[in-house]
């Protein structure tokens, strides 16, 4: 047999030529189809034994890796279970799942790791993919998948006011949407009219049109002239569909001429968000404070989207828009559309008890906008699904607190991608609600709820605990900054500071009223009763006792009222009423707040021409104040839950137009009319009681300091010194979770510890103000502006080069242990929630004002024996309110302490 010549084995391959593609590699977790981070793989080097530590790190071998992991298996063909992250520090490695953020385990890890290295850790097989930077791991960016792959120029720093960002390429505007042929109704009623026939008289149109006349030019022509002064031009998309051209979108001058600078920026921001130019979603959150014109900005956005499209000759972006708001604001939205656009330009369908035929909006062409309340939306949810909604505006969006909210589910059933939340109170204090709002406007942008909780909520909450370690502080701060950076792409927040040049000055007084002897006795009687001991171990009883004490703070006589007896169980009332003397229950004379209010309204009525708004959370309290005004023969209006919706706005307009003699006071229920109302007819407002939810108080305070206000505004917040009112206020300022748990009276047993309840119910009858004592402020309490806390020793987030002693690599003789401990304590102290915002106020103890009026006089010569230590002019400047200052000087004034702040 003739042997064949030798041939090399088939598995030996020569080197491929340079023009051939490289061989396929194993799929890694950085491919676009995976949860990729933006960091490429980096070749790892073995750390040398004597290598110096990395800058700003205590551990020279501290490293962070991306890995693949799987459980142990005896299968021949093994697959990886998932992607993960490995943090090696202090000789231990911590493995975390990239998808869920769940920590899989921890084990010893002391050997060098290279790309491709395999190791066994916490019962898992792990293979190293690559290395990542420490700041990427600490910030949590690597846990967000595609949401974290944001170009650096797209990130926005956390600033108090929004500034336009650098243009970033966005997706094509016409993605996955069919092209529609423009109809005759697209430009109605402002479409171009044909010239009048010869011999007929030309009739001037009813509306002045700002639309540019059509020409035969091949160049795309915008709807409005972009060269006009102060023209508001929207950002252009990065690309257009094949065969299409991009045209400028210019806001209608009918609206843009009324916009202030911050409103113009807000409209541009919202437009970029809903057009998908800022992030992967098409939603936005406008969290501007009250009074900044969120309604006008929204109307401008809707009108622009309904009439224009950045893709030339394409139909408008939006055909049908839905505005969902509290029932009390439905009529307000209707008036705002009529105010800015009139009745002819746009069709607005208001869904109420009279207009229930939803098909008029969903199927008809006469209406472009539908306004509906949250409650009614749930009842017409199925009918709404029959039509197509292009955009949803959720006003007072903080109502959408939970993912199980029925109103939220109704909106989500409409399958509308473009969603905008309007809320004057940002949702930063409760990260669970914050995630719900983000996931509502841009679903899936921050991943799953469980992963968000582990990656962001858990580390941030732990870092704010008093016993947080240095590593927890560092991690929590990095995660918070990353979260703010990510959400700033679709959330805009401006404070009332932008209105300082448009509105008159505002002065806010926090008034601590000393309880009367009868009021304090009633308070003590409740706390010494057997009910109190039972309440400490029962959350439901504690909530009922809280309601009782809040009524005592307003007036003990409110306990006897039968109108709202359902607020507290009859058994509790039957056991508590005998503890209070009948003369106290039958008269409101024991109410310290009512005495202060009596003196205040009398001085305002007799010395000024101003009007006042009085706000309470309880109709019982409004009844008590109403009886006071009647006894003084002062005229008033009243708006509460019993006021029909159709009568509310006429009532507000009548009050704003009338004089002090005709309508001096406006009694307002915070729950019924705390939002949306414009009570600029008054320049003073009293918050008679305080609410657990800070948003309720802030919204009520904004009723008078709004556009159109001509007079300086004075705001008074009443609370009983040392009582439950003051404790609630402290928790508002310190942003503790206790307040959020009580807002809806649905607190769980774990919401209150026994010590928290004891502190909450304790009546502090000292002469000093407890809130001021907690500040640690050493001012003289005479209203001097030098009430500032000394700043802690400054410690930079990144260690300085010469600060080797803090890293532990200097000689022992060079280390100042006291200084090092002080720096660590100061850094931790600066990160803890405090009452620091109260240092912006001036602190006034009214006993100094009484000393000024009670100067000793020598009876022989009539001369003053001693001079007062109070500077009257300085005190008047601090209070900035002559009417209130004269009240404080009264000998029998029940005001013990005042915190005051003025924007003037």
UniProtKB/TrEMBL annotation:
Residues of the Helicase ATP-binding domain: 275-444
GO cellular component: nucleus
Keyword tags: ATP-binding, Helicase, Hydrolase, Nucleotide-binding
Biased composition (Basic and acidic residues): 786-795
Cross-referenced Pfam families: Helicase_C (PF00271), SNF2-rel_dom (PF00176)
Domain Helicase C-terminal: 600-758
GO molecular function list: ATP binding; DNA translocase activity; helicase activity; hydrolase activity
TM stretches of this protein: none
GO biological-process terms attached to the record: double-strand break repair via homologous recombination; reciprocal meiotic recombination
Residue span of region Disordered: 1-60, 167-204, 786-831
PANTHER family per the UniProt record, alphabetical: DNA EXCISION REPAIR PROTEIN ERCC-6-RELATED (PTHR45629:SF7), SNF2/RAD54 FAMILY MEMBER (PTHR45629)
Name assigned to this protein: Helicase
Biological classification of the source: Eukaryota, Fungi, Dikarya, Ascomycota, Pezizomycotina
């Amino acid at each position: 047999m003739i042997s064949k010549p030798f041939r090399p084995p088939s598995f030996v391959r020569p080197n491929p030529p340079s023009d051939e593609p490289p061989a396929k590699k194993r799929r890694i977790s950085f491919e676009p189809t995976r949860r990729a981070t933006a960091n490429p793989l980096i070749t790892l080097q073995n750390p040398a034994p004597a290598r110096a530590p990395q800058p700003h790190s205590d551990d020279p071998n501290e490293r962070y890796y991306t890995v693949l992991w799987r459980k142990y298996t005896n299968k021949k063909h093994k697959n990886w279970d998932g992607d993960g992250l490995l943090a090696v520090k202090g000789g231990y490695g911590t493995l975390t799942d990239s998808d869920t953020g769940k920590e899989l385990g921890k084990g010893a890890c002391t050997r060098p790791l290279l790309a491709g290295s395999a190791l066994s850790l916490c019962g898992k097989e792990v293979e190293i993919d690559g290395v990542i930077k420490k700041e990427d791991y600490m910030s949590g960016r690597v846990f967000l998948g595609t949401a974290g792959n944001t170009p650096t120029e797209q990130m926005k720093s956390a600033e108090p006011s929004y500034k336009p960002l650098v243009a970033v390429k966005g997706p094509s505007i016409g993605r996955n949407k069919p092209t529609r042929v423009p109809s005759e109704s697209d430009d109605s009623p402002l479409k171009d009219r044909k010239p009048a026939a010869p011999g007929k008289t030309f009739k001037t149109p009813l509306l002045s049109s700002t639309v540019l006349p059509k020409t035969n030019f091949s160049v795309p022509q915008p709807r409005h002239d972009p060269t006009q002064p102060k023209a508001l031009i929207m950002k252009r998309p990065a690309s257009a569909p094949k065969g299409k051209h991009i045209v400028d979108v210019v806001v209608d001058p009918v609206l843009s001429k009324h916009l202030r600078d911050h409103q113009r920026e807000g409209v541009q921001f919202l437009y970029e968000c809903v057009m998908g130019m800022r992030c992967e979603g098409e939603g936005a959150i406008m969290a501007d404070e009250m009074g900044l014109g969120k309604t006008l900005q929204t109307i401008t956005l809707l009108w622009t989207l309904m009439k224009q499209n950045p893709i030339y000759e394409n139909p408008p972006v939006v055909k049908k828009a839905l505005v969902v708001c509290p029932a009390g604001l439905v009529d307000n939205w209707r008036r705002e559309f009529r105010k800015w656009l009139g009745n002819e330009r746009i069709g607005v369908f208001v869904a109420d008890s009279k207009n229930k035929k939803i098909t008029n909006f969903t199927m008809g062409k006469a209406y472009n906008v539908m306004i509906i309340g949250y409650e009614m939306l749930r009842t017409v949810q199925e009918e709404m699904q029959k039509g197509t909604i292009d955009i949803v505006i959720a006003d007072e969006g903080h109502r959408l607190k939970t993912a199980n909210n029925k109103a939220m589910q109704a909106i989500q059933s409409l399958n509308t991608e473009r969603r905008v939340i309007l809320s004057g109170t940002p949702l930063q204090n409760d990260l669970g609600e914050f995630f719900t709002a983000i996931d509502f406007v841009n679903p899936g942008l921050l991943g799953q709820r469980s992963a968000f909780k582990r990656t962001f909520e858990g580390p941030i909450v732990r870092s704010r605990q008093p016993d947080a370690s240095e590593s927890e502080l560092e991690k929590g701060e990095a995660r918070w900054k990353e979260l703010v950076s990510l959400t700033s792409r679709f959330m805009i927040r401006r404070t009332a500071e932008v209105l300082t040049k448009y509105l008159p000055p505002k002065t806010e007084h926090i008034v601590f009223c000393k309880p009367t002897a009868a009021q304090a006795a009633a308070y003590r009687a409740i706390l010494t009763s057997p009910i109190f001991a039972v309440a400490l171990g029962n959350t439901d009883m504690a909530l009922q006792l809280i309601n009782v004490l809040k009524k005592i703070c307003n007036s003990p006589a409110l306990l006897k009222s039968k109108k709202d007896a359902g607020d507290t169980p009859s058994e509790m009332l039957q056991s508590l009423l005998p503890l209070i003397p009948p003369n106290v229950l039958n008269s409101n004379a024991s109410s310290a707040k009512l005495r202060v209010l009596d003196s205040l309204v009398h001085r305002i009525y007799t010395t000024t021409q101003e009007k006042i708004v009085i706000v309470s959370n309880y109709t019982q309290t409004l009844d008590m104040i109403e009886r006071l005004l009647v006894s003084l023969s002062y005229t008033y209006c009243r708006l509460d839950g019993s006021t029909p919706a159709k009568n509310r706005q006429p009532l507000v307009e009548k009050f704003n137009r009338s004089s002090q003699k005709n309508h001096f006071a406006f009694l307002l229920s915070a729950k019924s009319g705390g939002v949306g109302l414009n009570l600029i007819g008054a320049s003073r407002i009293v918050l008679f009681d305080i609410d657990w939810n800070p948003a309720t108080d802030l919204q009520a305070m904004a009723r008078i300091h709004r556009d159109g206000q001509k007079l300086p505004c004075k705001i008074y917040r009443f609370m009983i010194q040392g009582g439950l009112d003051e404790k609630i206020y402290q928790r508002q300022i310190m942003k503790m979770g206790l307040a959020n748990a009580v807002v809806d009276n649905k607190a769980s047993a774990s919401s209150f510890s026994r010590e928290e309840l004891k502190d909450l119910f304790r009546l502090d009858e000292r002469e000093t103000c407890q809130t001021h004592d907690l500040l640690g402020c050493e001012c003289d309490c005479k209203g001097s502006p030098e009430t500032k806390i000394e700043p802690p020793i400054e410690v930079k987030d990144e260690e300085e080069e010469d600060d080797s002693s803090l890293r532990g690599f200097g000689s022992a003789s060079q280390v100042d242990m006291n200084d090092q401990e002080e720096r660590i304590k100061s850094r931790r102290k600066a990160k803890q929630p405090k009452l620091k915002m109260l240092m912006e106020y001036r602190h006034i103890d009214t006993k100094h004002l009484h000393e000024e009026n009670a100067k000793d006089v020598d009876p022989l010569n009539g001369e003053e024996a001693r001079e007062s230590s109070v500077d009257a002019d300085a005190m008047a400047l601090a209070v900035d309110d002559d009417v209130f200052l004269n009240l404080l000087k009264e000998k029998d004034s029940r005001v013990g302490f005042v915190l005051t702040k003025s924007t003037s």
